[in-house]
Specification:
Length: 288
């Protein structure tokens, strides 16, 4: 039975970096952070996949995880997430099984449709097709990870007598997770396929309001397909900054919160007056 003592802690990195920072240095610092999280006893660390904007600078989370895994001992790593519509399912399955073996089973396979519209635009993918593509790719990849021979044809990939040439590290496979934000699409996919659920943007007003609804959908669809919805595997992403005092936290985040706000506002096409100063940003986000 779930209880408060069941709560475990991990870190989810997009990652966000200032546009004027040295990307080589930032990547090295991100890897160093993984070793620090491992030392502190964090259970998991997740790394995102993005291909534009210049702020979220990891286009290949599997490559990042491969490097970080060599420098850590215990912490598990999640792809947060692999954007399934951007990749042929056989290639995704092959890369994930290799990474699972290299990390000796410390991998969590996080999946999603892709978040940033510019990523899809640059690849000529219609955003309205991304969720459909996610479902199609997931169907194929899960079969490949089970060791099945897959024949499948869609309007964007073909599989002919396809099989993953590598086994998973453990006989019961790789824990696979589907991301969900506001839409219940991720909850439906996770419930249908017996996967774990990752709730993003859980601290935003709309994301927080969707938590109950999406979990209810997940439980219902899981039961309909003969799966158990386990709260112990539910990941909820909530940004936080911990310091000895609120004043110390505000002093520390004020150094970089302007870059973060600028990035978020560029993505939403906004330029609010409160974003002109660190104090204004802190006040706005505290009360939002």
């Amino acid at each position: 039975m779930w209880s408060a003592s069941s709560i475990r802690f991990g870190a989810f990195l997009a990652p966000y970096h200032p546009l004027d920072a040295d990307p080589a240095l930032q990547l090295r610092r991100d890897i160093d952070l993984m070793t620090h999280l491992d030392h502190l006893g964090f259970e998991e660390a997740w790394m995102g996949e993005h291909h534009s904007t210049g702020a979220e600078i990891v286009p290949a989370p599997d490559m990042f995880i491969a490097a970080a895994a060599e420098r850590t001992e215990r912490i598990q790593f999640g792809t947060g997430v692999t954007s399934l519509p951007y990749h042929h399912p056989l290639i995704t399955a092959d890369r994930i099984t290799q990474l699972d073996l290299q990390t000796r089973g410390r991998l969590i396979f996080g999946t999603g449709p892709g978040k940033i519209p510019l990523d899809a635009h640059m690849m000529g993918i219609n955003p309205s097709d991304q969720r459909r593509r996610q479902g199609e790719a997931l169907e194929a990849i899960l079969a490949l990870l089970r060791g099945e021979v897959v024949n499948m044809e869609t309007d964007w990939f073909t599989l002919r007598d396809a099989r993953a040439q590598l086994p998973t590290y453990r006989a019961d496979g790789i824990e696979t997770v589907t991301a969900s934000t506001i839409s219940p699409n991720g909850s439906v996919l996770a419930g249908k396929n017996g996967l774990s659920l990752l709730s993003l943007a859980a601290s935003s007003p709309s994301g927080f309001d969707a938590l109950d609804r999406n979990w209810d959908v997940y439980e219902k669809v899981s039961a309909e397909h003969g799966h158990h919805a386990d709260r112990a595997t539910w990941r909820v992403v909530n940004p936080m900054f911990i310091a000895e005092t609120r004043a110390e936290a505000e002093r520390a985040v004020s150094r970089r919160i302007g870059s973060m706000a600028s990035y978020v506002n560029r993505q939403t096409g906004q330029n609010p007056a409160w974003a002109d100063t660190p104090a204004g940003i802190i006040d706005q986000w505290r009360n939002d």
